[in-house]
Amino acid sequence: MFRRTATSAEGHCFLHVIKLVSPFVMVVVLQAAVAGFSLEVMSSVRAYVAGEALWSRSQKNAVYFLNRYLHSGEASQFAEYQAALAVPIGDEFARWALERDPVDVEAARIGFLQGGNHPDDVPGLIWLFRYFNRVSFLQEAIREWAATDPMLLELSVFGEVIRSELENGPIEDGRLQFLSSRLSELNSQFTVHAKRFSTVLGEGSRAIKLTLTCINIVTAAALILLLIWHTRRLVLQRRAFEDALHAEKERLTWQASHDWLTGLSNRRAFEARLQSELDGAAAGAVGLILLDLDQFKSVNDTCGHLAGDRLLCQVSRLLQQDRHAHDMVARLGGDEFGLILPRCSPFDAVDIAERLRRSLELFNFAWDDRCFAVTASIGVTCITERNTTLEDAMRRADAACYRAKEKGRNRVQVDGERPGIIAAARPREAVAARG
Which of 341, 349, 339, 328 is nearest to 428 (CA)? Predict the structure, then answer.
């Protein structure tokens, strides 16, 4: 059973941790995905820029070597021309493969490799063309690229024509001048489109870089805001937990020193306070009153414990009326109450006890159309000796309360057999000191 409980607690803790970190994980994953996508796009665009440079250089080399072959007739120059021309033709073949429906990825890969592109760049070239060919800048670049197809065809045919004429003998000067001039025109036309292609790719690359940078910044800002929000939530949760813990400690502390029914101090707190007052008794007399309700059991037996509890609560409120701030009223258990009166003369203690007795006597408790008279037996003692123990003080007050019950209840009884102490006490000169 304990193992199952521990496992369940661990599982709950794990789920709580997952719940806490999941927003961060999602944003980090999003950030990583955006960063990966950005790198892939930029890498593919860079591959097209590099491919365009290679395409342009190979096209110029093809024109250059074909022109040299035209003037020298050397077979090696024609071979160089064919090798250079194979690069733009390979790229053209790859584009055609990607424009088919369905797309021929393998043919496109072969074409890009023939075009001299690095094998690692080929997947990015294919991916960017397939999924972003309708983006404005790439669409325009592809249009410039496709515009060179007739020129490549003409350059390819031109080479075969020149080789055929050279195989039949030297070419006349006029014909030679015409062919050379046409090669120069083709090279100029290639250059125009190549520049446009490069310019469009450059502008698109910068636009993509700016867009992706903004996306990364927004994602990073979202991560920071989420971190701030989550941290604030954790701080508030911790503060709420600390407040709840503090409130619970206060509640437990209050429960440890108070009676749950009446809200008065309990016996433990009462005795601790009395001990504190006895330790300083030399600074002034300490009045101690114990009060037992008369016939409380009859209320419980007649009307039930709920009525008895209601009576105890009403009596507790009555006992607290007109008390000084430093006085203490406590419920000691059952129907027994106690009062501690610091800096109180014997005369004042008896006077307070008598007033409490009269207040209770005038109080009628009503329950279910029945009324009960409430009286109390009250014992009073006044401690002036510094060495008086807690047990002795409680014993004196309790004995006085017991004698009050023996003498007929509903009366105040002072401890000991010396009533002259009360008579000799100076009338209420200590009232100002107590106030």
Answer: 349
For residues 401 and 292, is the Cβ–Cβ distance under 8 A?
yes
End-to-end CA distance of the chain: 61
Contact 212, 38 (CB under 8 A): yes
Least confident residue range of 221-230, 297-306, 421-430: 421-430
* Dihedral sign of CA atoms 18, 24, 30, 31 in order: negative
Could you tell me which of 37, 153, 155 has the C-alpha nearest to residue 96?
153
286: CB partners within 8 A, 6+ apart: 274, 277, 278, 340, 341, 342, 343, 344, 382, 383, 384, 393
Q: CA angle, corner 105, sides to 101 and 108, nearest 5?
A: 100
How many Cα neighbours within 13 Å face the side chain of 130? 17
Strand-pair partners of 328: 340
Bridge-based pairing of strands 411-414 and 376-383 is parallel
For the full predicted model, state whether its pTM sits above 0.70. Answer: no
pLDDT for the residue 385:
81
Instruction: Please report the pLDDT score of residue 410 as a whole number.
Output: 94
CB neighbour class for 33 (10 Å; exposed up to 12, middle 13-18, buried from 19): exposed
Phi and psi, residue 356, nearest 5°: -65, -40
Q: Where do the H-state alpha helices sit in 171-257?
A: 173-257
Per-residue tokens: 254: 């209050």
Q: Tell me, what DSSP letter sits at residue 102?
A: S
How many angstroms separate the CA atoms of 168 and 170, rounded?
Answer: 7
* Mean of the per-residue pLDDT values of the chain: 85
**Strand, helix or coil at 409?**
coil
- Residue 389 — φ and ψ, nearest 5°? -85, 165
The answer to whether 413 and 400 are in contact (CB under 8 A) is yes
Helix axes 2-72, 149-167, angle to 10 degrees: 40
Residue 365, H or E segment: strand 364-367
Per-residue pLDDT tens for 186-217? 888 888 888 888 888 777 777 777 877 888 78
CB 204 within 8 A of CB 138: yes
Cα(41)–Cα(316) distance, integer angstroms: 81
- Whole-angstrom CA distances from 76 to 56, 66, 104, 152, 172 are 21, 10, 35, 21, 22
Residue 407, CA distances (Å) to 228, 410, 412, 413 in order = 75, 9, 10, 9
